[in-house]
Amino acid sequence: MVNISSPSRLKDRVVLVTGGGSGIGRAAALAYARNGCKVVVAGRRKAELEATVRLIVREDADAFAVSTDVSVAESVRGLVAATIDRYGQLDIAFNNAGSEGKFAPITELTEADFDSVVGVNLKGVWLSVKYEIEAMLSRGQGGVIVNTSSFLAEGATVGSSVYSASKGALIAMIRAVALEYGPRNIRINNILPGAINTPMFERLGGPTALATLAAFTPLRRVGSPDEVGEVAVWLSTDEARFVTGQSILVDGGFTIPGMR
After folding, report:
1. Which CATH code fits 14-194+225-250?
2. Where are the domains of the chain?
3. Is 131 a catalytic residue?
4. Which one of 51, 81, 97, 231 counts the least CB within 10 Å of its CB?
């Protein structure tokens, strides 16, 4: 992995990372810390969040954890309020919390299956964006928001109807938000990870599924959480200051159209 981190790159900016207890969220939280951010780590599993905070502290960065259910408005409001109480500002948000739910043909899925996935992947991001922007507007200094969508927003696999719908909706959502708040210097983009070696992919199929996806990826490998986290950091820097309303694939070329 090429380390392009610099403590001055995002010095003293405050970032909020949801789903920060493991996988892409943990990798991104550490990457933000290495680039000078103060980090708020949020999620539902307290022990994992605290483990992420310990790793960040080892990087000589400031961080704390907030147990949060992003599908509940009051919980998200409390998370943003805790961030402001601790640091007095919110500059960057990486909305990464997500749920794969159940992968099965649509006739085998229930309304509860639909509600649980959409509640986190779409409603949870919508709520997070709403309250994050309110905090950014109150300070008047602009801000950056990055959301985790998925390569399955650009494609599908058998059983992904609910997951693909929840992640695809984020592409449409940020276009509107980019138009609404670009004039207030708030940028918003999505990352669409492909096959990444994370606990979620372990649950969905493990090494066999990852090996199969790697074989059909032009780079002939799966990605690491760090590689996604570094893209989130880049989108949050002034290097990407003219990028907004975009959904960027980080999938090793898997979704390039072609014969397979």
Report:
1. 3.40.50.720
2. 14-194+225-250
3. no
4. 81
